Amino acid sequence: MTVIESTTEVNLPVETVYNFLADLNNHQQLMPENIYNWSSTTDQASFTIQNMAKLAIHISSRVPNKELIAIPSEKAPFDIELKWTVEDNGKGGTIAKHIISADLNMMMKMLAAGPLQKLADHQTQKLQETLK
């Protein structure tokens, strides 16, 4: 299993950050430019990754003010889990961590690990910018 992580701090309470992340409609604001055909509800999202694949995800698990996990709702090129965790930073703000776990063979890992890391980093950066 390939695990990719990216962490950021947001100067807002855990509850505010969690509530933003818990609604998949908000995740469009976190996506890079190569994501298009976005469609979402609170619990589901589908989109196309330019030159790659169409992906549909849904929230599979929620732990209020702690974590949420999204997994594919349709057959994906490989098993993948998208997890966000939030915790208090001790100063009234939030440490948000985006963890992508993907079941990649060696060939897929060489092709996909870099873009997945860029995606995780982009999303945590956009989260920080969006929730000022």
UniProtKB/TrEMBL annotation:
Annotated SUPFAM superfamilies: Bet v1-like
InterPro entries registered for this protein in UniProt: START-like_dom_sf
Top-level taxon of origin: Bacteria
Annotated protein name in UniProt: Polyketide cyclase/dehydrase/lipid transport protein
Gene source species: Pedobacter duraquae
